[in-house]
Amino acid sequence: MKKRDLVISVIVVLVVLVLLAVVFSFVRLTGKSITSIETCWDSDLGQNYWTKGSVEGEYYSQINPFEKKSFFEEDVCKSKNTLLEYYCYTENNSVSSYKQSKRFTCPEGCENGKCLGEPVEIPKRTTLLEKIKDFFVG
User: How far is CA 128 from CA 43, 71, 131, 134, in A?
Assistant: First the structure.
């Protein structure tokens, strides 16, 4: 009976070690930390270039997956016309959310972490699959 309990304990420890190795490998290979979807919050609700916003949340350290860290970043003008916009990104069908940033050229200039002037529609990037579909379907 004790031998069986020992075998089960060893199996549980091995499974935990394998899971930790998978998590560590994911972080090292992708550079992304695994987080819960609710750990990243964006005050301006996404890529909103005409509103100054901030992102904040928590993530797990790449060095120590049990060490939780927090972040806070505000949208900021990097030059007279360039905005660095922070937002939260969630992959499709994922429980992970990541802090992302994007440089955006403001048509009428940048000041105090937002673009000046009235918002304009930003063209959506088209994937190769969408271009092929548009070509054949019209």
Answer: 32, 35, 5, 10
